[in-house]
Amino acid sequence: MARMIGKGRFGEVWKARWRGEAVAVKTFFTTEEASWFRETEIYQTVLLRHDNILGFIAADIKGTGSWTQLYLITEYHENGSLYDYLHATTLDSVSMMRLTLSAASGIAHLHTEIFGTQGKPAIAHRDIKSKNILVKKNGVCCIADLGLAVRYLSDTNEVDIASNTRVGTRRYMAPEVLDDQLDATHFDSYRMADMYSFGLVLWEIARRCSSAGIIEEYQPPYYDTVSPDPGFDEMRKVVSIERIRPTIPNRWSCNEHLQNFVKVMSECWHQNPLARLTALRVKKTLTKMTNDELKIQP
Questions:
Q1: Contact 51/142 with Cβ under 8 angstroms?
Q2: Residue 213: which region, alpha, beta or left (left: phi > 0; alpha: psi -120 to 50)?
Q3: Neighbour tally for 225: CB within 10 Å
Q4: Average pLDDT over residues 271-288
Q5: Which parts of the sequence belong to the Protein kinase domain (predicted)?
């Protein structure tokens, strides 16, 4: 273990060395054993490996009778989370597309069931936010923190939901989650809630993309409408009752690229879950936008 690089409600994240390579080690508080077990279980899902999902290396339990440490060992990415990256980095349209398309690709892979003897169940994340997306050295994202994920077992039509009591992050919760209206027996409900949260992440990224020399400072979604650590009722009032969404800066309407982007994010955070775009549709749209953008580049 070299140094601590992060701390969360589950435990700590350390940069460490393993076989001469830098790795990240997430250590869980013993009270969070269910989270550790769930995340380990999800990471070990067959065919989960993907460029845009954080690479899992190993899980371990260390300790004596009275003292236990739960480890989850993954690839290390020095840029840290997308949240940290956006604080420190301004984007052009190409780097914005690289971040957004790669994140959408990771979510699409999670959400997709792969059939066959070595198949992969569909998985919903349930805590999509910029702090749970990491940025690789090449400016591409990977999805991390699968401790809350749910799996859909199509053979038995069963939603396999984590036994841990953690819920997602209030600021990123979909209106139906805040209203306690999400149909927990229907797997698509979780996928649609993920897409609402992803719409907010797209907004965070777009603010840091320069157009005509203008850029907004990093802010979390709803920074101007709720308190720094908003409660359920506060979020519900804004998102569900008043149906407010993050403010779209005027400059975005003057830039064709950001205009198209606004359309995608607005269709992700639609009040009606059934009207939201799927991860695959977002991935296809962003792929086309990326290709168009690269054609324009001198």
A1: yes
A2: left
A3: 17
A4: 98
A5: 1-298
Contact 69, 61 (CB under 8 A): yes
Q: Which CATH class is domain 3-75?
A: alpha beta
pTM, two decimal places: 0.96
| 4, containing H or E segment | strand 3-7
Q: Which CATH number fits domain 82-296: 1.10.510.10, 2.40.37.10, 3.30.70.140, 3.30.1050.10?
A: 1.10.510.10
Q: Which residues contact 55 (CB under 8 A, 6 or more apart)?
A: 49, 74, 75, 142
Please list the active-site residues.
127
Residue-level pLDDT at 67: 81
Q: What is the pLDDT of residues 148-167, one digit of tens each?
A: 999 999 999 999 997 766 78
Structure tokens at 257: 């690229």
Structure tokens at 294: 């690269």
- 26 annotated as ligand-binding: yes
Q: How many helical (H) and strand (E) elements, i.e. helices and strands, does the chain have?
A: 8, 10
The domains of the chain are located at: 3-75, 82-296
Q: Is residue 31 within 8 Å of residue 65, measured between CB atoms?
A: no
